[in-house]
Specification:
The protein has one domain: Aldolase class I (TIM Barrel, Alpha-Beta Barrel), CATH 3.20.20.70. It has 13 helices and 11 strands. It has helices spanning 11-23, 36-49, 59-66, 73-95, 111-128, 145-159, 194-204, 233-246, 265-271, 283-299, 317-320, 322-343, 355-360; strands at residues 7-8, 28-32, 53-57, 98-103, 135-138, 165-170, 175-177, 180-182, 210-214, 254-257, 276-280. It has an 8-stranded parallel barrel with strand order 2-3-4-5-6-9-10-11, surrounded by 7 helices. The two termini are 24 Å apart.
Amino acid sequence: MSTLKPGVVWGEDYQTLLKACKEGQYALPAVNITGTNTINAVLEAAAKNNSDVIVQLSNGGAQFYAGKGMEDSFQAKVLGAVSAAQHVHLLAEHYGVCVILHTDHANKALLPWIDALLDHGEDFFKKNGKPLYSSHMIDLSEEPIEENLAESAARLKRMVPLGMSVEIELGITGGEEDGVGSDDIDSDKLYTEPEDCLRAYEVLSPIGHCSIAASFGNVHGVYKPGNVELRPSILKASQDLVAQTHGLDANPLDLVFHGGSGSEKAKIDESLGYGVFKMNIDTDTQYAFAESVGAYVEANAKAFKHQIDPESGTPYKKQYDPRVWLRAGEQGVMDRLDEAFKDLRSAGKSLADNSQKAKAA
C-alpha cells in the first residue's frame, strides 16, 4: 500500500488517496468547520481513528472564522478561508494524518469568492510550492448545465497548475446550507441524470481532475425517516454509462455524497460500492457540538450564573473557563466522528507515513 507524508494532500498525493478510497470501498468524512475548535476536533478524531479526513469551509464558516465584526463581509469570507487553511497546513502534519482541504458550495453569486481564493492560492503556491487548498467546489447546479460546466472548466484551468481539483454538483441537493440552496425545489431535480455525469466527464477530465456531487435524493440537514428517498442506484448507472462509453474500468468517476447527516446506514454502505470517496457530514457534527456544550452547561448551571456560589462562596472559575466547555463541544464532535469513520469504513486505513515521527519519539 502506498504511503503519504502526513499533512494537507494535493496533486498526485490527492489522487493516490482517492484511488485508495475507491479500491478499498471506503470514504472520508468531510466536516464543515467554523473555527479552531472544530478544526482541532476533526484532526484529533482522525488521528484517534487512524483515518484520513476532509476539512472544508463554507463561505459562512469562513466569514465566521475571520470574525463577524469585520465590516467587509466579502473580505471576511476570503481572509477567513485563507486563515483557516493556514491553520490546517500548520497543524495537520503534526496530528499524523492526511487531510484534504476543501471549500464547500460556491454558487453563482459566490464565484468571486472562489476567484479571490485562487488569487491567494497562486501567491501561496509561489511562496510554498504547494496550493493553499486541495480543491474548491463550484456549485452551479441551479444553472443550465452548459453554464455549470463552462464556469467550472474556467476555474479548473487555473487550478491545474497548482495541483488542485474541482468539485462540481449535478442535480440539486435539497435544503439549505449557509444561504446556498432552497427547500422549494422540484423533487425531480434531486436526482441527477447519468447523461449529465457523462457530459461533465467529457468536458472536465481533459482539463484536469474533477469530482462530482451527483444528487441521488440528497438533502442538507436531517429529516423524519421516509421524508428523504436516497437512490444510490443513480450513482451506479452514472458510473456504468461513463465506463461503457469510454471503455474504462468500473467506477471511473470520483463521487461525493452530499447531505450525509442522518442518512440510512444501508444507503451509505451501498454508495461506497459505487465510487463514493467523500461524504459531507455537517448537521450532525454541529448538533454533536451543541448537545455536548448544552449538557455541560446544564450540569454546571450555577457556574454560568455566578462567578462565586452565592451560598457557599465557592469560586466557579474552573467550571466557566471557556477551555472547559469548548472542550466538551470538541469531544462531542469527536464522538460523532468515531461513528462516521466506522460507517464509512475508513478507520485504520490512513495512508499517512508516521515512521519518521515514530523514530523521533
